[in-house]
Structure formats: C-alpha cells, structure tokens
Design a protein that fits this description.
This protein has 5 helices and 5 strands, in the order ββαβαβαβαα. It has 142 residues and is an alpha/beta fold. The chain has a 5-stranded mixed β-sheet with strand order 1-2-3-4-5. The protein is globular.
C-alpha cells in the first residue's frame, strides 16, 4: 500500500487536512475515511494541504472531485492548497484546476483570497511537459 499520512486541524475558518505522501489508488481510501467524517458536519468547509503530497493519480483526483461535489451539495466547499508542480500538472491534466479552487498558500485558501488562486495558464507554464522519448537512442535501419 502506498504511504499516505495526514493530520486534521479544525480551525474556525475550515477543517484543514494536511497530507504527506502519495495520493494514489492504493492510499486514497485512507483520505476518504477522514473526509467522510468531515463531511458529516453541517456546511463543511475543507482545505486540503497538498504541500507534502509527492504524487497524485487519477483515483486521487477523482476522489477529490467527488468529495468537493458532496461538500458543495451540503452548502460547504472543498479547496486545495499548495500543490507541488507535479501534482499541479496532474490536477490540470485531469481538469480539476477548473473545478476545484486551488491556492498557492494555505493562508489564501483559508481566506478564500482569489489573488492566491493557481490559474490554468500559470499551471501550464510551471508544469511544462517534455515529450515522451521516442526511442531517440535507436537508429532506423534501411
């Protein structure tokens, strides 16, 4: 199982889940258990601190999107804070930057400060991808 640890802090402005490790299929259930408890509160406001998340896959992204939808249905919200460039790349590729507010800092996420949002254009610039190597070391023989 992939390692994922987290801490839960209940603040006046929101419940902050600080994650450490990889948020991938093998570890997503750990976070889902904690999130389901937070969602029991009325109008849940959840901030997920991704600063120490080293990787996220499509399962992790989908879990965040579903949880954000549930929070919204209950009159609350789920936002993300401080994702590292590889995580931003996966969030962007999965279309999540346009559906879940993602902030550069925890402070801006707690304050819901729009100046702190990671924009899709900014994410595209900071996570420029390199093309897959196409057997560059092999020569085509005639």
């Amino acid at each position: 199982m992939a390692a994922l640890t987290f801490a839960v802090d209940r603040l006046a402005a929101a419940t902050v889940l600080t994650c450490h490790g990889a948020l991938v299929a093998a570890s997503a259930m750990q976070l889902e258990t904690a999130l389901s408890q937070v969602l029991l509160r009325p109008e849940p406001r959840i901030v997920i601190d991704l600063a120490e998340v080293t990787a996220i896959d499509c399962t992790g992204v989908m879990m965040l999107r579903v949880t954000a939808g549930i929070a919204l249905e209950q009159g609350g919200s789920l936002v993300l804070a401080m994702p590292a460039p590889p995580v931003v790349h996966t969030l962007r590729e999965g279309g999540t930057l346009s559906t879940i507010q993602t902030y550069r800092t925890l402070e801006s996420a707690l304050a819901a400060d729009p100046r702190g949002l990671v924009t899709d254009a900014e994410a595209a610039g900071q996570t420029a991808t390199t093309p897959w190597p196409m057997n560059s070391d092999r020569r085509r023989s005639a």
